[in-house]
Design a protein that fits this description.
The complex is a heterodimer of chains A (249) and B (567). Chain A is an alpha+beta fold. In chain A, 31% of the residues lie in helices and 15% in strands. Chain A starts with a strand and ends in an 8-residue tail after the last helix. Chain B contains 16 helices and 19 strands. In chain B, strands 1, 2, 6, 7, 8, 9 and 16 form a seven-stranded mixed sheet that branches. Chain B has a five-stranded mixed sheet with strand order 17-15-10-18-19. In chain B, strands 11-14-13-12 form a four-stranded antiparallel sheet, with helices on one face. In chain B, helix 1 runs parallel beside helix 11, helix 3 packs across helix 11 and helix 14 runs antiparallel to helix 15. The chains are: A alpha+beta (249), B alpha/beta (567).
């Protein structure tokens, strides 16, 4: 026997093309069976009750990062959040903070992607490619494991207190991505590439409140990357002062 | 008017690989319904096949052995020349992805790690834990960023513009602004993915509607082998999230409620590592004959990983463990995983040759939306990621050749008149009748799962064909709730639904006519393979009356004579 409980979903509504209508919450009452996720419920609300509701979704299995939002005050992916897990019959849904709202739960991700692109998030090599693979030890591979898990959902970006006051701060996800390459044994980027993050908009801007770690649905720890990048920068500076680096390019 | 030398629709692996290969030389635009890293390629877990011979148990592996396994796995419906190209190219593309930064798992000697997968005689599947699609897609997205590829993110294609078998571009829809935009293109490549969501139970992302295939078909491009639909043996009950074949590759067991490793009854030699079509049917028989378990979310059998031990599960299958905990509250270290077979992959698609060309000049297709065909009647695990990257790459060569040798200019007038047609269509959806799009989709997908699923027979498929015809009638009265054009996902669903109806129709009609069992297509009333009559591809074209017109064409046989498929 499948039992359904009635829930109230209070969903944030706003349309940037209709700024005269102030942001507000709209309530939807819906019966939900145990095991159903917030995303599946949102889809049902859009299908059956209100076709004008906007939110993003794609994989519905916590790998694509589309449906990050604020659920009862906490940032998470709607697809991996069970409705019944909140112990409350009211669920409040709001868009990710720190990004402009386009419509309802859909935010403009442009600044997030701009910062991602800014850190040169790709493998940079100068050596000629070998015929087969570039060898990488198991330990070297393990070093980047955690960073590789990032799904670019922007949960950490939404949770970051620095971004709420400094919109041009690079942000946690981009640092985790950058460190993923700095730590990759195959990457040969010159260290002076890191000069761009050697400032208050960069790694020195973080106030280590750990909110990015709390918000990450994939157990990535962007702060570890920020601290790691700071250390790399300090070592690089020291070497430069003593003239023991030959950072070409 | 927007114009590009090359317009690529789809930002998954096939689309991005093609974009990266062409952007240095041509003006390339990539249109994607979602941001490229949200594409369904991201969800692939298990791995990508290439005969690198890195494994100590596979030192004598060769691309020819890979080709043989693929052709045998395809139940001899794959075009052998195309398979040979894919398997030879596999080694190059895996090294290329590695050179571009793909973080593969490694053997202790620092080489790319490889593991066994179903239907393969060697441990040939290269992987990165159970996140192989995620790492490959990120690598290609990173490469596209490095090269400054122009991406139209959250844009959707409404129609393909063809005239006298020449392609002129597309009519696109900007989800954010709600604008309908014609885009002229000298060449257009579809890399729009598979049609999983035509089925009720599918492992696929919500975006995998197959509408790209439907759009091409409606524009007069032939589509091929649509009846061949892969069912994956192990999807989580309820949400139907994929539980990778790597679980069995790493040694997982399938267990029924009598605590029996029942694969011994069906395929004693290969057991859980038999190909997907065979394992899916075996599981379904166990469930149908009452040896499955009961759960409010459905009947299931168990996939048991416990004997692998916590360290191996944590190292090789960490994503699977998280999925099980998040979505069904089961930790596979402590409990078996409740699974059922469900739709997973589209073997059929836009009819292309091994150069990704269609019969419409300037129009190409690659990846899951295309049918080359390299998977024939059943795709082996680890060959779909391979297909996307290899044919994404080969499409570059064909498009380059076309642009060098062809001076025909796309015609703006054709696009303008098609744009008007699309505006009328959307207006009708906004001010139409009383049918809700989701209701129609539920009915369509249920019919497909019930009647054109793992097991098929004449009466059931006839029922499906009748249902589809009624559902097409109902679609005329479809209506969306909000009249806003931008960020209107219900409208997007309704537009895609029209194309899904065509896709479903061609699957059902192909399955109805094919009176044999081959690979994933299993007819209870014709339960053996029949090479005398059916060693051929099904081709569907849209007729003048809008109904599908079916013809057949020969399978390309090179070095591997069809024989009985035994494991």
């Amino acid at each position: 026997m499948i039992t359904a409980n009635e829930y109230t979903f209070k969903i944030f509504r706003y349309d940037m093309k209709e700024p005269e209508v102030r942001p507000h919450f709209r309530s939807y009452r819906i019966k939900v069976i145990s095991g159903l996720t917030v995303l599946m419920t949102l889809l049902r609300i859009r299908d059956e009750i209100d076709g004008s509701l906007s939110f993003r979704s794609s994989c519905r299995s916590a790998v694509c990062g589309s449906c990050a939002m604020v659920i009862n005050g906490k940032i998470d992916l709607a697809c991996r959040s069970q409705v019944a897990s909140f112990g409350d019959n009211t669920i409040v849904l709001e868009p990710l903070p720190n990004l402009e709202i386009i419509k309802d739960l859909v935010v403009d991700m442009t600044p997030f992607w701009d910062m991602y692109e800014k850190v040169k998030p790709y493998l940079i090599r100068k050596s000629p490619e070998p015929e087969k693979e570039i060898h990488q030890g198991e330990d070297e591979r393990k070093r980047i494991d955690q960073n590789v898990n990032c799904i670019l959902c922007a949960s950490c970006y939404g949770a970051c207190p620095v971004l709420s006051r400094t919109p041009d701060y690079i942000g946690p996800a981009a640092f985790a991505k950058l460190e993923r390459f700095v730590l990759d044994s195959r990457d040969e980027r010159p260290l002076h590439f890191l000069e761009g993050i050697n400032n208050e908009k960069g790694v020195w801007g973080c106030d280590t409140m750990l909110r990015c770690i709390d918000a990450c649905p994939k157990d990535v720890r962007p702060i570890d990357s920020i601290v790691g990048l700071r250390k790399t920068l300090l070592k690089y500076k020291a070497k430069k002062i003593f003239g023991i680096t030959k950072d070409e390019d | 008017m927007l114009a590009h030398d090359v317009l690529i629709i789809g930002g998954g692996l096939a689309g991005l690989r093609a974009a990266v290969g062409l952007c240095d030389k041509y003006d390339v635009g990539v249109l994607s319904k979602v941001h490229p890293v949200r594409s369904h390629s991201i969800a692939a877990q298990g791995g990508i096949n290439a005969a690198l011979a890195n494994s100590p148990d596979g030192r004598d592996d060769t691309w020819k052995k890979h080709a043989f396994d693929t052709i045998k796995g395809s139940d001899y419906l794959a075009d052998q020349s195309a398979v040979e190209i894919m398997c030879r190219e596999a080694i190059k593309v895996v090294y290329e992805m590695e050179h571009w930064g793909c973080p593969f798992s490694r053997f202790p000697d620092g080489s790319i790690a490889q593991r066994p997968f179903g239907g393969a005689d060697y441990p040939r599947t290269c992987y990165s834990a159970d996140l192989t699609g995620h790492v490959l897609l990120n690598t290609l997205n990173e490469r596209a960023v490095a090269k400054g590829v122009r991406v139209y993110s959250e844009w959707f294609v409404l129609a393909l513009v063809t005239d006298n078998d020449v392609c002129h571009g597309v009519i696109a829809f900007d989800l954010k602004s709600g604008e309908i935009v014609p885009i002229l293109a000298k060449t257009t490549l579809f890399a729009t993915g598979g049609y999983g969501r035509v089925y009720l139970h599918s492992t696929n992302a919500l975006i995998n509607t197959g509408s790209g295939i439907g759009i091409a078909y409606k524009a007069g491009v032939p589509i091929k082998d649509m009846e061949f639909v892969q069912f994956h043996p192990t999807a989580l009950i309820g949400t139907n999230i994929l539980i990778t074949e790597a679980c069995r590759g790493e040694g997982g067991y399938l267990i029924n409620k009598d605590d029996e490793r029942f694969m011994a009854r069906y395929v004693p030699n290969a057991m859980e590592l038999a190909p997907r079509d065979i394992v899916s049917r075996s599981i379904q028989i166990e469930i149908d004959e009452g040896r499955g378990f009961e759960h409010p979310l459905g009947k299931y059998i168990n996939l048991d990983l416990r004997h692998l031990g916590a360290p191996k599960i944590l190292e090789k299958l960490p994503g699977i463990r998280n999925i099980c905990i998040d979505f069904i509250g089961v930790d596979p270290i402590l409990e078996p995983i409740p699974i059922m077979p469900c739709q997973h992959y589209s073997m059929g698609g836009i009819d292309t040759n091994e150069k990704c060309e269609t019969n419409v000049s300037g129009f190409y297709a690659a990846g899951e939306c295309a049918c080359v065909s390299v998977h024939g009647a059943n795709r082996l695990g680890g060959n779909s990621l391979l297909d996307t990257i290899v044919f994404g790459k080969l499409a570059c060569l064909a498009i380059d050749e076309h642009l060098r040798n062809n001076s025909a200019k796309p015609d703006e007038k054709l696009l303008i008149s098609k744009k008007e047609e699309m505006e009328k269509k959307i207006y009708k959806l906004m001010y139409g009748g009383n049918e809700k799009p989701y209701r129609i989709l539920v009915d369509l997908s249920k019919t497909m799962s019930d009647c054109v699923g793992i097991f098929r027979e004449k009466a059931g498929i006839e029922q499906a064909l009748m249902d589809i015809s009624k559902i097409k009638e109902r679609f005329r009265d479809v209506h969306v709730n909000s009249p806003k054009l931008y960020m209107n996902y219900e409208l997007l669903n309704a537009i895609e639904l029209e194309y899904m109806l065509e896709v479903a129709h061609t699957i059902a009609i192909g399955a109805y006519l094919r009176e044999e069992s081959r690979g994933a297509h299993f007819r209870k009333d014709f339960n053996t393979r029949n090479d005398t009559d059916w060693l051929k591809h099904t081709v569907a074209r849209i007729g003048k009356d809008g109904e599908p017109v079916i013809s057949y064409k020969d399978v390309v046989i090179t070095n591997y004579q069809p024989m009985e498929r035994k494991y």
